[in-house]
Design a protein that fits this description.
Number of helices: 13
Shape: globular
Largest sheet: none
Helix content: over 70%
Distance between the termini: 66 Å
Number of domains: 1
Structural class: mainly alpha
Order of helices and strands: HHHHHHHHHHHHH
């Protein structure tokens, strides 16, 4: 008789706080760093200003912006938590059969699907409520109108590996919503107009799409053999290790081009942002050098550490330039 038949499934933690802590540990809340700085930068580019000065070029209304940024951060955390819980629930059987992911909480039965459904409902309600506060406090109801479509969009990625090797692009598109959503929340749809900050924010969103898709291709190299074995779609499964590496390089080259475009079309993005672009170029080159030199062993550094630095550098230096 197999171990699976004789070993009972682990019981979920008895206390609600224990289940929530286990879920948050499993989805690695700290990885919000990948998208959060771009949301903050999008907010700064569309920040409310005193009407003094042509074209709204007065001083930033810091009190108003501070409250808006707090709401943006809350929305970002809730949205990412929702998306990652959808991923863990949708993939729990796939994860359970994959040695790399078998210890995830839903995969090993430490959390039940009911636990996940309740947490998803809490995140969704919290996200809609926080988005609605932009209407209550600032008369901008667009975040409330778009809240449910945004949740549907960022949750879609978890199912795409079942039918397309472009799943990495869907993940990039989910994170690319962060600067767009923050810009609409802070400045309204008019902030994305061609004569406003629209071209720069759109270029940043395109950069996030290419950058995230590129490093997700690297991350998926860990599961190349497993994905092929069970028939899941990914760039590595479709093109092999060497082909996937070149796809990732091409996506990251596109990301750098879009960063330069954002710098070119937005006058407020000056020397600091250009310096950030140079740093990011060096970090991405380092990332691919680590992968080429160390292979699979270099993936944790290439995926987590270096890309976390990329987002923080761009977000911080870009935001300083924007103000």
């Amino acid at each position: 008789m197999s171990d699976a038949a004789t070993t009972p499934a682990p019981s979920p933690p008895a206390r609600l706080s224990g289940r929530v802590f286990l879920a948050l540990s499993d989805i690695k809340l700290a990885h919000s760093v990948f998208a959060m700085p771009f949301a903050v930068l999008g907010a700064f580019l569309t920040a409310p200003r005193d009407p003094v000065g042509a074209g709204g070029g007065g001083q930033i209304l810091w009190g108003r912006l501070g409250l808006m940024l707090a709401l943006v951060v809350v929305c970002m955390v809730l949205a990412r938590t929702w998306a990652m819980l959808v991923n863990r629930l949708a993939d729990r059987e796939i994860d359970a059969a994959n040695p790399r992911t078998a210890r995830r909480a839903f995969a090993r039965g430490a959390l039940s699907p009911r636990d996940g459904a309740l947490m998803l409902a809490a995140c969704a309600l919290g996200f809609v409520a926080a988005a609605s506060l932009f209407g209550v406090l600032f008369q901008n109801w667009w975040p409330a109108f778009l809240a449910v479509p945004v949740l549907a969009w960022i949750g879609l990625y978890s199912y795409t590996k079942r039918f397309t090797w472009l799943c990495h692009v869907f993940l990039g598109g989910a994170l690319a919503a962060s600067p767009l959503a923050a810009a609409i929340a802070v400045g309204g749809p008019a902030s994305l107009a061609p004569d406003a900050s629209g071209p720069a924010v759109l270029a940043l969103a395109g950069m996030v799409l290419c950058w995230v898709a590129g490093f997700d291709v690297i991350y998926a190299l860990q599961d190349l053999d497993y994905d092929r074995e069970v028939g899941l779609n990914s760039v590595p499964a479709r093109f092999g290790w060497r082909g996937a590496v070149w796809v990732s390089r091409a996506l990251h080259a596109g990301a750098l081009a879009l960063l330069l475009l954002a710098w070119r079309v937005e006058p407020r993005l000056g020397g600091l942002f250009l310096g950030a672009v140079v740093i990011v170029a060096a970090l991405l080159l380092w990332e691919h050098a680590v992968l080429a030199r160390r292979g699979r062993a270099g993936i944790p550094m290439a995926f987590f550490t270096l890309n976390g630095v990329v987002s923080v550098v761009l977000g911080v230096l870009g935001s300083i330039d924007a103000v």
